[in-house]
Amino acid sequence: MTGLPAQNVEDGHISYADPNGITGGHLKQSEIGTFDTVNPYSIKGKAAAGLTFIYDRLMARSWDEPFTLYPLIAETIELPEDRSAMIIHLNPKARFNDGTPITADDVIFSFEILKEFGRPNMRSVYRQVAEVKKIDDLTVKMTFGEGYTRETHMIMAMMPVLSKAWWEGRDFEETLLEMPNSSGPYIIKDIQPGNKITYERNPDYWAAAAFANNGQNHFDLITYEYYRDDTAALESFLKGNLTLRRENDPRRWNEQYDNPSIEKLEFEHGRPQQAEAIIMNLRSPLFEDIRVREALFLAFDGDWIKQNFFQDSLKRTNSYFPNSVLSAEKPVPGEGMDKRVRLQKAQGLLQEAGWQIVNNQLTRDGQVFEFEILINQAKYEKIVLSYVQSLKRLGMTAHVRTLDSATFQNRLLDYDYDMILHRWQNSLSPGTEQMVYWSCAAAREKGRFNYAGICTPEIDETAEKIANATTYEDLTEYVHKLDGLLIDSFLSIPLFFNNKDYIAVQRDALSVPEKTPIYGPVIEAWSINPENEEK
Question: Does the pTM exceed 0.90?
């Protein structure tokens, strides 16, 4: 965005796009759980999958670079040297899907409504904008105020633009189940709340030939079908009802896709993997003492689980930026250590913290060490139940509760749990979201992403430095420090990760570009195989 583009725009398309892809066909994928809204920017409700297809942003991201943006609704953006403001020049060709032009009024309206009612991560960044001023119908100036960072303009440049005429007078916080007037490459063709949503390619999409879009968005129809659990979704795929399936379980990948009608594709990538973990809620007095948290960490038999459940095909996670140069690469405490030795060490830590086993129960001052672990998918049960058995040997009682996706999400946003199996997602260019993940402010405010409730001055200070880094070298140094602080805090029991994406497709159904971006395969760049196009 600032200076020369990272890719050769003279090529006419992003590196991983396929301008020769065939237009047409119907891509069908699965989702687990349910949905009740097509507004992904409100905190209320569970948004449907695929909504990025209908909402355009000021600028578009490339998935083959750490954090580079290319023109979309915004044709150009001007920045002063200190990045304290940005002047947004809209593309005069930009249109909503009803043919009306996208104007400065729409940009200002979008900013104001998302700042007030948008998701917490949006609100926290948008509050850094002190003033928004309309210069003319196609020009907007944003001036940043106290707390802005060197990344603020990048986050603001990814702002979705909503139609003022369509949204004005509607309750933004209510769930939405009708097609809004939007500006993306697709429109919603059919909504079956909780069961299915289908998108239809807009043949009149104004930005189809833009550098950020050229060679993408080939499918005429894209459908997400919802299933009660992943087992049902897999069965449907194997019966040929779905075109494509992402698989996260290596054992299942190796054992359950032996079908001549299925093609298995593996893609190595360089993005940080999700930091999936059993997260302790430090707001609970049970987990306040770091010695207790370390004991809980040591009780998890990661070596046994990795071997027996995943055939040693995964790596144990000990970073909040796994599979990337941003990882602090600290050894996993207790990895490779005999299970008995780990439990003995854990028991010693618990005794130091004042806990004793009485009648096979871990107690302190009459309180029994008993808690609940929340999960939202059956596939996690075997991992968590194995952990529960290890905890029993320490005298702890843990109850596992599997929730439906909506209830799980509500409990997550309310920080209403003892332990919860969830994840953090990071990129190769971390920034202001680190304050949302780890700051004291985020620990206190519900609906943010400090799931562990961690709150220390050093973590706050380090997370804040990340968004203000002036070089990638400095950013890497700050992230390494933050990662180390988080690991040493024992705020979760990290699970496992894979540096490959597993995607199964119906054989010969799809055409896949040769280039795989560093963030992994981008399905929008795939297309139907012309020899097998569904009629």
Answer: no
